[in-house]
Amino acid sequence: MGIGIALTTRSELGTSPISSVPYVLSLSLPLSIGTFTFLLLAFFVLVQKVILGSTFPPLHYLQLLIAPLLGLFIDFGMFITAFIHPSFYLEKLSLVIIGCLFLALGVTLQIEAKTIMNAGEAIVKVLADRLNKPFSSVKVSFDWGLVGVGILLSFISFGGLVGIREGTILSAFLVGFFIKLLRKGLFAGKSRKKATNPSN
Q1: Which of 51, 99, 127, 180 has the fewest CB atoms found within 10 Å of its own CB?
Q2: In this model, does residue 152 exceed pLDDT 60?
């Protein structure tokens, strides 16, 4: 996921929706995108606690340990992709698509592992379960909400649109779309096996 976010950011067409708020903040304040990601994810854990109340599983507080790891890997991804400077628009667009695929793969693996998810995906799952909606559909709506907050912060900080471009908008659609494809493709056999053999 860290590599996916870094590649999308290096496209120079904006960044992924989950990083739109941290990225805009990192451009206006002296903290890295990874640090702001950690702070945002910690806030998401608090929101989950508010939504679930007494039913919030204590084990899910471990999301607070995963959050700095994702922040660290985002900063690491930015470090190892520092050499990437796309010149042509097609190159930039390709980076967005590849970055979204990496990000979607990371999210899908977390969902299928059924262990502790990072807070950015866990809050979407909580909302999807509460609303009885598919995860991928809620993911798209949630990402759009983050993009909206990022745009607002951009205008407050810079008086215009900075750090969010068409790549961010494209990512808001592509990540949820890729998650749906990956879950139907890579894990379709697993779902069918469970249906035919409930004892598993």
Answers
A1: 51
A2: yes
